[in-house]
Design a protein that fits this description.
single chain, alpha+beta, eleven-stranded antiparallel beta sheet, 11 strands, 37% strand, globular, signal, DUF6612
Length: 248
């Protein structure tokens, strides 16, 4: 079971994270560091955030809705899939949805806890995921200015992506002897659009088209995730229902 959960955590992390490139010794654009710093400061002072996620592949897409009340430390994530809604307060995570078979419950709880933890961190620092994966993040982003917006882009080569993916895999499964391979790469790209005046994120785009393997079993990643409809400092009514099951 421990081995299964390790694989599940690793594959779940890939849904929620991004990979980096090279050693970061030379900035691609010196202005990126200042933009990233200012955006972090702006997000650290927010009272609340609401974001719509548009995710899926070319064949199937769906929207999910994520909101966080920073003042009251409350989170709500509506996946719009299988009726699952995740909640969190200052002490616990919760899962509400249809009755879940016992054999699937641990998987659902593990993934729900991971989603909630990541969204809390991303809400307060929109670069959290990328910084966890990329040393010297500002050294990897290119910057374009257009219509009062900063457009930060990261597009690694196949060699860069493969190297960093393998390093991430090693760090993620240090206590296990799993073999992780990246047999096929097609495309990987991150784009973050920031308002020049407010320093708040307006949208992000993550394109992932590659296949990795765990002990010979392949896991194709064919996904495009867009974050949009950012609403900042609006009053949010997040109430954890009595029917929600607390995740231990």
């Amino acid at each position: 079971m421990k081995r299964f959960i390790t694989v599940l955590l690793f594959t779940s992390l890939l849904v929620l994270t991004a990979c980096g490139s090279d050693d970061g010794t030379k900035p691609k654009d010196p202005e990126a560091a200042k933009i990233i710093e200012n955006t972090k400061k702006a997000h650290a002072e927010l009272d609340s955030i609401y974001v719509t996620y548009d995710e899926g592949n070319d064949d199937f897409r769906h929207e999910s809705f994520r909101e966080m009340d920073m003042k009251n430390n409350l989170v709500r994530v509506d996946t719009q899939l299988n009726g699952m809604i995740y909640y969190a307060d200052a002490e616990h995570d919760y899962l509400e949805g249809p009755e879940i078979p016992e054999e699937q419950l641990e998987r659902e709880h593990t993934f729900a806890a991971l989603v909630l933890e990541e969204f809390k961190k991303i809400s307060e620092n929109p670069f959290h995921v990328f910084e966890r994966m990329i040393d010297n993040l500002d050294h990897h982003m290119t910057v374009e200015k257009k219509d009062g917006l900063y457009i930060l882009t990261y597009a690694p080569t196949e060699e860069e992506f493969t190297t960093q993916f393998q390093e991430f895999a090693k760090r993620s499964i240090q206590a296990e002897d799993l073999v992780i391979e990246l047999p096929k790469y097609e495309e990987y790209r991150i784009q973050v659009i920031i308002d020049e005046e407010t320093n708040l994120v307006q949208s992000t785009e993550l394109v992932e088209y590659y296949t990795y393997a765990v002990e010979g079993q392949e896991f194709p990643q064919q996904r495009k995730t867009f974050t949009k409809d950012y609403r900042y400092n609006e009053a949010l009514d997040i109430t954890i229902p009595d029917s929600a099951e607390r995740i231990e």
